[in-house]
Amino acid sequence: QKEVEQNSGPLSVPEGAIASLNCTYSDRGSQSFFWYRQYSGKSPELIMFIYSNGDKEDGRFTAQLNKASQYVSLLIRDSQPSDSATYLCAVNLYYGNNRLAFGKGNQVVVIP
Amino acid sequence: EAQVTQNPRYLITVTGKKLTVTCSQNMNHEYMSWYRQDPGLGLRQIYYSMNVEVTDKGDVPEGYKVSRKEKRNFPLILESPSPNQTSLYFCASSLEGRSNQPQHFGDGTRLSIL
Description:
The complex is a heterodimer of chains A (112) and B (114).
Chain A: E1 4-5, E2 11-14, E3 19-25, E4 32-38, E5 45-50, E6 54-58, E7 61-66, E8 71-76, E9 85-94, E10 97-102, E11 106-111
Chain B: E1 4-7, E2 10-13, E3 19-25, E4 31-38, E5 42-51, E6 54-57, E7 65-66, E8 76-78, E9 87-94, E10 104-105, E11 109-113
Parallel strand pairs in B: 2-11
Antiparallel strand pairs in B: 1-3, 3-8, 4-5, 4-9, 5-6, 7-8, 9-10, 9-11
């Protein structure tokens, strides 16, 4: 099993709708979880991080973490065309060593 | 402005010709790391450094070397580049390596090895 999996294919959402992205991870000892946004040809940009079970909201973004089920999700409310990008889930696998394992990413396309 | 700076941004070179990609951060970060990104494979860690003079292998270290003589700099060295090292490379840094700090990425270096 891969360390971090993002299985969904490209996601198309109408402008103003909610985009929902999911990520599962294999190491039950993982401590922290990050969502990065990457525009084509650009570097990953941190948009959210979450360490505790539950929801964390920042503007139009909400990260949800369920350690028992080993998944983390990202909701984008009121999606805008500028949200069209690839979203990368990253998991810190070893506390004390800031090694990140990344999923392959999910492409989001917001349709005006 | 707080940033991670990589140079060069683009490089086309030939097999076997040694090259160095520089990475510098101005945030006094302890932790620095190199990743490569390939289609279908995602971001994979090459090497990382917890602090000055402390480096270790990541997931795909073969064919690469690094050094960390100063806190701000973490160069990636390809002693004898091969075509399978053609990729998009990112340097990243975080405040500390011994805590769950978000990593901040440089703008990337696109390498083509012919």
